[in-house]
Write a structure and sequence with these properties.
Blueprint (H helix, E strand, L loop, with lengths): L1 E5 L11 H15 L3 E7 L12 E11 L2 E12 L2 E7 L1 H4 L6 E2 L2 E2 L3 H19 L5 E5 L5 H7 L12 E6 L7 E2 L3 H4 L13 E2 L2 E3 H8 L2 E4 L2 H6 L10 H6 L4 E3 L27 H13 L10 E8 L5 H13 L3 E8 L1 H13 L4 E4 L4 H10 L2 E4 L9 H7 L3 E5 L2 H6 L13 E3 L4 H15 L2 H12 L5 H19 L4
Parallel strand pairs: 1-2, 1-8, 2-5, 8-9, 9-13, 13-14, 15-16, 15-18, 16-17, 18-19, 19-20
Antiparallel strand pairs: 3-4, 4-5, 6-7, 10-12, 11-12
Helix pairs in contact: 1-17, 3-4, 4-6, 9-12, 10-11, 10-15
The protein binds adenosine-5'-diphosphate and alpha-D-glucopyranose (GLC).
């Protein structure tokens, strides 16, 4: 099949979170299955044509947007053998960040991503690469299925095209004022509850949910959760109405990037049979954060966007009590200013036990996965979550809240049978979280049992291959539907 994966980010070119990891890895797995798969994303300022060896393939592509046409340039690079296209437009994408400044979202985000979505379609037409499936991801690409089924409906080149829409996070919906419809060159007739309207606004995630042939999200559990009021962010009704088209496919992890036996970012490599390198990584991490170099102290870690979704307020509240258990804590992340303040306060109170890096640093994230003993993810909701899987691979025990992909990927350790890979809790309270960490710290002090636990985790296989086959089956289902095959 010909597949085009459209995403607003993809590693290694542009990344703010897990979507980039997925868009960078899934296409490689699909290519291995024999598909002609390509990726498209905006050419942000950080996508340096020299560093990434890009070549320009279209110098001027007319794209209808906001009642006029604007010109895009199209560039081509690669992830391994997978071609990657970049939609260039200086006015829209030559900026410091992908989506926002410190003061909030870019005010023209509706126009920026309407342009991107339409450019994706115009590009395929101009290049003569007409995919069977447009695999769209999150609200930034919600207009791709919309154009296919509205403005471009009946156009010869797009007649057979199918659209799969993947929700990576229902909490980010791309909500704009009613004028966004005109920005997107769409008619007012779509401004109703069966179209893009959502409580008086235009909702671009809903656009994807309404117009795609099939919908997926990134774990089985989350695919069920989002159909309930508690997790639906107001879209549970839309999702329930399409329940038979909603699937959960767990993300995989890219073992080319995340494997302790060949990771170039870490101080020493290691494997389940020889964990000595992990001790070297731990000492290296303690040094990097200016902590006491103690091999015996449980080292707890967080790498996260600091937002309410991730439950980081629970960590901040429980932190003093955690440190009372004679532990160390390191955090890499950015986000809410009050959480920055809370963690800076903890560092000031416990300078030799707390390490902070309030920034984004891919190399350091690998060092943390390799050097820590426990990884904390008390998320309020978590569509999939990648760091708990990276943690398992690196012999770092995850402590997670039982939600979404965290619930699907972590089995609680049972000291009786020696089975299980981590620690889980249910309540959204600092106490419930603290109890789970206390259990983990207790077990850490029994080295033989601990080794058993982390070896269980290292033996798990989350490679993309299985998930890629599940996507393949859904792509095929769409193609069959569109060509009227039974
Ligand atoms: P989300 O996409 O909701 O942020 P995921 O667990 O799916 O959560 O993915 C987060 C990805 O972003 C992981 O690869 C993680 O290592 C990375 N990440 C998050 N914060 C940082 C940071 N401050 N520095 C480096 N990498 C980060
Ligand atoms: C989102 C989710 C995260 C998921 C990632 C990749 O950002 O918050 O749980 O792992 O997308 O699908």
């Amino acid at each position: 099949m010909r597949i085009l994966l459209a995403s607003s980010e993809a590693a290694p070119f542009a990344k703010t979170g897990g979507l980039a990891d997925v868009a960078g890895a899934l296409p490689k797995a699909l290519a291995k299955l024999g598909h002609d798969v390509r990726v498209v994303l905006p050419r942000y300022r950080g996508v340096d044509p020299v560093k990434f060896q890009l070549r320009q393939v279209l110098t001027s592509l007319s794209v209808p947007v906001a009642g006029r046409t604007a010109d895009a340039t199209i560039w081509e690079g690669a992830i391994g053998s997978v071609p990657v296209f970049f939609v260039g437009h200086d006015g829209y994408y030559n900026r410091d960040a992908l989506y926002q400044t410190q003061d909030g979202d870019y005010p023209d985000n509706a126009e920026r991503f309407a342009f991107f979505s339409r450019a994706v379609l115009e590009m395929t037409r101009a290049l003569g690469f007409l995919p069977d499936i447009y695999h769209c991801n999150d609200w930034q690409t919600g207009l791709v299925p919309t154009y296919l089924r509205t403005s471009l409906q009946g156009t010869r080149e797009f007649q057979a095209a199918g659209a799969l829409f993947t929700v990576h996070n229902l909490g980010y919906q791309g909500l704009f004022g009613p004028e966004a419809l005109a920005m997107a060159n769409l008619g007012q007739e779509l401004f109703n509850p069966f179209g893009l309207e959502f409580y008086g606004k235009v909702n671009l995630l809903k656009a994807g949910l309404v117009f795609a042939d099939l919908i997926t999200t990134v774990s089985r559990k989350y695919s069920q959760e989002i159909q309930t009021e508690e997790f639906g962010h107001g879209l549970e009704g839309v999702l329930r109405a399409r329940a038979k088209d909603v699937y959960g496919i767990l993300n995989g992890i890219d073992y080319d990037e995340w494997h302790p036996s060949r990771d170039a970012f870490i101080a020493a490599t290691f494997s389940p049979d020889d964990l000595s390198g992990k001790a070297v990584c731990k000492a290296d991490l303690q040094r990097a954060f200016g902590l006491q170099e103690r091999p015996d102290v449980p080292l707890l870690a967080v790498i996260s966007r600091l937002t309410p979704q991730k439950g980081m307020d629970l960590v901040a509240e429980a932190l003093d009590a955690l440190l009372d258990l004679d532990t160390q804590f390191v955090l890499l992340g950015t986000g809410d200013a009050n959480l920055h303040k809370a963690f800076e306060g903890a560092k000031a109170r416990h300078p030799s036990c707390v390490g902070l890096q309030l920034g984004f640093d891919v190399g350091l994230s690998h060092k943390i996965e390799a050097g820590a003993d426990m990884f904390l993810m008390p998320s309020r909701y978590e569509p999939c979550g990648l760091n708990q899987m990276y943690s398992l691979a690196y012999g770092t025990a995850p402590v997670v809240r039982a939600t979404g992909g965290l619930d699907d990927t972590i089995q609680p350790f049972d000291p009786g049978t020696g089975e299980g890979t981590g620690f889980k809790f249910a309540g959204i309270t600092p106490q419930a979280f603290l109890e789970a960490v206390r259990a983990a710290v207790g077990l850490y002090r029994q080295p033989d049992t601990w080794r058993r636990l982390i070896r269980n985790g290292m033996a798990c296989d989350f490679s993309w291959d299985r998930s890629a086959r599940e996507y393949e089956a859904l792509y095929q289902q769409i193609v069959d539907r569109r060509t009227g095959r039974p």
